[in-house]
Amino acid sequence: MDVAARVPDLVHRTLFRAVSLLASGGQGPLLRTYFDWWHRNPDPWRLATDHYEAHKYKTTLDAVPEGRYERILEVGCSEGVFTKLLADAYPDAGIVGVDISSRALGRARERVGDTGSRVRFIQADILNPGLRGDFDLVFCAELLYYLGRTPRLRHASSRLTAFMRPGAHLVAVHPWPEATRLHAFLDADPALSTVGNHVERNVDRPFAVSLYRTAPRDASDREPGEA
Fold first, then answer.
1. Quick count: other Cβ atoms within 10 Å of Cβ 98?
2. How does pLDDT run across 188-209, given as a tens digit for each residue?
3. What pLDDT shows up at residue 131?
4. β-strand pairing of 135-141 with 207-214
5. Is the CB of residue 131 less than 8 Å from the CB of residue 87?
6. How many CA atoms lie within 13 A of 203 on its CB side?
7. pLDDT of residue 227
8. In this model, does residue 154 exceed pLDDT 70?
9. Which Pfam families does the annotation name (predicted)?
10. Of 201, 156, 202, nearest to 182 (Cα)?
11. Which of 214, 213, 210, 215 is nearest to 182 (CA)?
12. DSSP per-residue string spanning the chain
């Protein structure tokens, strides 16, 4: 990723460090306004065209254990680039994409196209308790650093865990080494076990892909070789 491509990322992350100082009731509306403004032009972060993003998506999918996933959640789906990859990779799964920006979600629906009711998009804030679900596979990428302060990271981590069924997997993807801090509450969550952690260092912007799992309901849900 060249310097020009990094500028939007640096600008919006700096802004969100300041936004996180607001009370919870003020942060959500400001985030919605900001992201709708940022998405005034299609694909502002070049998620659909940048080779780095394509590599990160492939690395993320490669981290997912083989298996049958009936319900998949992508938190922070933006314009649906990765959602479309999920729909292609798991043609039998029901998929829900969540984002705070209605403008981004409009483009996500256009990108994914007609899938009947199999792929749905919801405008919501991850910290909103009204967002509920029961999923086999959950993705959270490039999102937690927007939340800023420690209490909100703790809350977001518990919300991610709450979306998971017994035996479900969670994939968290964030810049390295910042991922150490961002994933700390997931690492410490007694409801989760860490299945794997891959750090991709040989790229302009290193990132970590961390894989977690909730306890299975019974022995038939266990991973091969799992006690």
1. 23
2. 999 999 999 999 999 989 999 9
3. 80
4. unpaired
5. no
6. 17
7. 34
8. yes
9. NodS
10. 156
11. 210
12. --HHHHHHHHHHHHHHHHHTTS-HHHHHHHHHHHHHHHTTSS-TT-TTT-HHHHHHHHHHHHTSPSS--SEEEEES-TTSHHHHHHHHH-TTSEEEEEES-HHHHHHHHHHH---TTSEEEEE--TT-TT----EEEEEEES-GGGT-SHHHHHHHHHHHHHTEEEEEEEEEEEETTHHHHHTHHHHH-TTEEEEEEEEE-SSSS-EEEEEEEEPPSSGGGSPTT--
> Which residues are paired to 121 by β-bridges?
97
Name the average pLDDT for the chain.
Answer: 86
Residue 146 tokens, joined? 């927007």
Q: Which residues make Cβ contacts (< 8 Å) with residue 204, sequence separation at least 6? A: 1, 2, 52
- Contact between 200 and 209 (Cβ < 8 Å): yes
- What is the number of other CB atoms lying within 10 angstroms of the CB of residue 74? 26
| Domain 3-221 CATH class label | alpha beta
Q: How many residues does the chain have?
A: 227
224: confidence class by pLDDT, cuts 50, 70, 90? very low
Structure tokens given for 223: 């991973």
Lookup result for tokens 């065209």: 49
Q: CA–CA separation, 57 vs 34, rounded Å?
A: 25
